[in-house]
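Two entries, shown back to back:
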Amino acid sequence: MSALRTVEAGERVSYGHRWEAPRRTRIATLPVGYADGLRRGLSGRIRVRLGGRDLPQVGTVTMDQVMVDVGETDVEVGQVATLLGDPAKGEPGVGEWAAALDTIEYEITCGLSPRLPRVHHRAPETGGRHDAVQEAVG
C-alpha cells in the first residue's frame, strides 16, 4: 500500500469521481493499475485482501493506482495487499476477475504485465513444478 487517507462522507475518489464515500472512511491507494493488467472493467467489482480482511476496491482503476475502502481496518502504508492469491486460502483468485469480466481465466493471466513481480513455488510434496503466481504489490 502506497498511501492512506481519510475521506469524508460525500467525497469522491479516482478518475471521473464515480465513487462517492457513503460515510467517513479511509482509502488505501495501491500502486497497481491497468498498465499492470488490472483491467478498468474490474473497477468497483473486486475485493482485495489487506490487513487480514477482504475489502472492496472502489473508484475507477487508473493507469498506475487503485483505491480500496479500508474503513477502520488496521492497516498501514507499506503493507502488502493481495489482489490475486490462492482461493483455497480465501484469497481473491483469477476466477473472480474472469467472472466479473465474463471471460476466461487465461485472458486474465495473459494480460498481467511484465511489470508485476512473479514468485514461482515448487511443490515440496511432489517435487514437481507448481506455477502459482503470487502478485504481491507493496
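entry 2 starts here
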Amino acid sequence: MPVGTLEAGQVRAMFDRIAGVYDLLNSVMTAGLHHRWRERAADMARVGPGARVLDVATGTGDLALELARRVAPGGEVLGSDFSEAMLTRARAKPKPAGVELRFDWGDALELPFEDDSFDAATVGFGARNFADLLGGLREMTRVVRPGGRVVVLDFTTPTKPPLSLFFGLWFDRIVPLLGSLVGDSEAYTYLPNSVKRFPAPAALAAELERAGLHEIHYLLTAGGIVTIHAGTVPEQGEGA
C-alpha cells in the first residue's frame, strides 16, 4: 500500500472518529467557503423540482441538503455513505420542506440501485477516498439515467506559486496541526495526502470519460485549489 494511503476499512474508521468535528474543521479550513463550493456543484447537476438525486459519500450531508433545496417541491435526494457516524450527523440536520431526503449506508463501489435510477449523482470531497476511483465513477454513471449528470467536487493541488506555496504550507503543516488539536492528527495527515494523490483536473476529466460520460467540463475555483467536474450520461446511440 503506498505511503499515506489507508485500506477502505481504515478510511471508514477514520471518518467515524472525526464525525463530531468534521463540520467545524471544514469551516475553519475553508473559511466557510465549502458551502459556496457545494452550491456551485449543485448548479452543475442541473436539477430542479421533482428530480431524484443521489449524493455519494455524503458525509454529514451538506451537499445533499443543498440538492434537496433544488429539487423541492416533490423531489427526492438520497445521501449515501459508508460511515454510520457521519450519517448520524447528517440525519440530525434540519431538512427542507417539500422534499424526500434520507441518508442510508452504502458502498460507493457497489451502489444498491438499479441502472438509470436518478436524474443526477454527485460526490463532494469524497471521490479521492474511493478505493477504486474509476470503479466509483462507473457506478455513479450506471445509476444515472441517459441525459442525467454526474458531478465531482474536490480539492486539487495548485502548481504555480504563490498559491502552490501557500497550499503546501496549509495542507502539510496547518491542517495536521488542527487535527492534533482535536485529537486526530492521523486523519488530518491522511486527508492532505489524499489531495496530492488525486488526479489533476485534466486527468480526472479523462477518468470521467472512461467511466462512460460525455460533454465533460470542469470549473476551477477558489484560486485553483477546488475543481468541479461534470459530465452527462449519453442518450441511446450517442458516444461517450
